[in-house]
Amino acid sequence: MSDRSGVQRATAAPASANPVPQRTTWQRERVREALTDARGFVSAQTLHATLREENTGIGLATVYRALAGLAALGEADSLQSPEGENLYRACESPGHHHHLICRSCGLTVEIEANDVEQWARRTAEQHGFTDAQHVVDIFGLCGPCAQARTGERDAD
Ligand SMILES: [Zn+2]
Ligand SMILES: [Zn+2]
Ligand SMILES: [Zn+2]
């Protein structure tokens, strides 16, 4: 983890001229950076561990809050793993979209799903719901992981 070339960031000078409206602003920025550096979906605990290595002094509760804030702003994706854990990811696509996630290696593909959009809207309408939202993510094994698994089985 030492060859982080290209990461050279001016240490945020305490800007006395700049009144900070929210105390959590720099912390949220730091969490956002850590999220961007992470590959695939990560939990708050994982990010917190990363930030602790860097001695940022950011607490787990703050990480949770920052992630929820980023997700609310649409700057991070959030989803629940099959184990029920909340996972987050810095999102590459700005608008509403879905994900294909490899259960084994965490590879994530952002996908559009027009069928799902239509089905969700229609279903909500049929039940008299408006302003409906949905989260649909597909978990599975990516090609290479599935192949590796088959290879293991053949070797037995
Ligand atoms: Zn996404
Ligand atoms: Zn995979
Ligand atoms: Zn959708």
UniProtKB/TrEMBL annotation:
Molecular function GO terms recorded: DNA-binding transcription factor activity; transcription cis-regulatory region binding; zinc ion binding
Write down the required cofactor(s).
Answer: Zn(2+); Mn(2+); Fe(2+)
User: Where in or outside the cell?
Assistant: Cytoplasm
Q: Where does Fe cation bind?
A: H96, E117, H134
- Pfam families with a match to the protein in the record: FUR (PF01475)
Top-rank taxon of the source lineage equals: Bacteria
Task: Supply the alphabetized keyword list.
Answer: Cytoplasm, DNA-binding, Iron, Metal-binding, Repressor, Transcription, Transcription regulation, Zinc
Give the residues the record marks as binding Zn(2+). Answer: C102, C105, C142, C145
* Location of region: Disordered: 1-25
Instruction: Name a biological process GO annotation.
Output: regulation of secondary metabolite biosynthetic process
Q: Cellular component GO terms, alphabetically?
A: cytosol
Transmembrane ranges, per UniProt, are none
Record note on quaternary structure:
Homodimer.
Q: Which family does it belong to?
A: Belongs to the Fur family.
User: What is the designated name of this protein?
Assistant: Fur family ferric uptake transcriptional regulator
